[in-house]
Amino acid sequence: MKKEWFSSSPEDTSNIALEVAVMIENKEISPWVFLKGDIGSGKTTFIRALLSFWGITEGVSSPTFSLIHHYPHPQKNIYHVDLYRLRSPEEVDTIGLYDLFHPENLVFVEWPEVIEDSLCFPHTRIQLFYTEEENSRRILLTSEA
Ligand SMILES: Nc1ncnc2c1ncn2[C@@H]1O[C@H](COP(=O)(O)OP(=O)(O)OP(=O)(O)O)[C@@H](O)[C@H]1O
Ligand SMILES: [Mg+2]
């Protein structure tokens, strides 16, 4: 599946993320979401809105130093991962990331570049692109599932 949106504000991006959350909840796309985009393009903004769909509204920021944030939820395990500081797939092996990919888990990953060549299972990819206009982003979803 491929889908494209144009966002003209952070609020727009959040609403698009809520659409994506519904697609995940309906099992139309994989709950393992990899978000690519330049610094400040809106990855955390997008993930904050995804998390709000499952009732998590506080304490969301890029886990740049902790690498993995686990958010408590009664039915699911929800993880927010930031691979920005990791330099090799071997390094990613050491943080236990691959143990998170259980069908009942929601996993949202920022900066997946370091492992994207080794992602040999179905997943959802979100790409955020700056455009010529300020506060505007092109958002692309691709999913094999
Ligand atoms: N259309 C838009 N969608 C999302 N964010 C926008 C938009 N327009 C402006 N912004 C601003 O861009 C910034 C996005 O920051 P955010 O932390 O979400 O990016 P990020 O991709 O996670 O950055 P980092 O790479 O540092 O983790 C926010 O300050 C937000 O207000
Ligand atoms: Mg971020």
Task: Write up this protein.
This protein has 145 residues and is α/β, with parallel strands linked by helices. It has one domain: P-loop containing nucleotide triphosphate hydrolases (Rossmann fold, 3-Layer(aba) Sandwich). The protein has helices at 10-25, 43-53, 89-93; strands spanning 2-7, 32-37, 68-71, 77-82, 105-110, 124-130, 137-143. Helix 3 (89-93) links the parallel strand 4 and strand 5. The structure holds adenosine-5'-triphosphate (ATP) and magnesium ion. Residues 43-44, 62, 110 line the site of magnesium ion.
Explain the layout of strands and helices:
Layout: E1 2-7, H1 10-25, E2 32-37, H2 43-53, E3 68-71, E4 77-82, H3 89-93, E5 105-110, E6 124-130, E7 137-143
Parallel strand pairs: 2-5, 2-6, 4-5
Antiparallel strand pairs: 1-7, 3-4, 6-7
The structure holds adenosine-5'-triphosphate and magnesium ion.
For the CA atoms, what is the radius of gyration?
14 Å
Q: What overall form do the CA principal axes indicate?
A: globular
Query: Strand order of the main beta sheet, please?
Result: 1-7-6-2-5-4-3
Strand content: 25-35%
- Class from secondary-structure proportions: alpha/beta
In CATH terms, the superfamily is: P-loop containing nucleotide triphosphate hydrolases
Stretches where pLDDT is under 50 for at least 5 consecutive residues are: none
CATH class: Alpha Beta
Helix content: 10-25%
**Strand tally:** 7
In this entry the ligands are: adenosine-5'-triphosphate, magnesium ion
Taken together, the total number of domains comes to: 1
CATH topology: Rossmann fold
Subunit organisation of the chains: single chain
Largest sheet: 7 strands, mixed
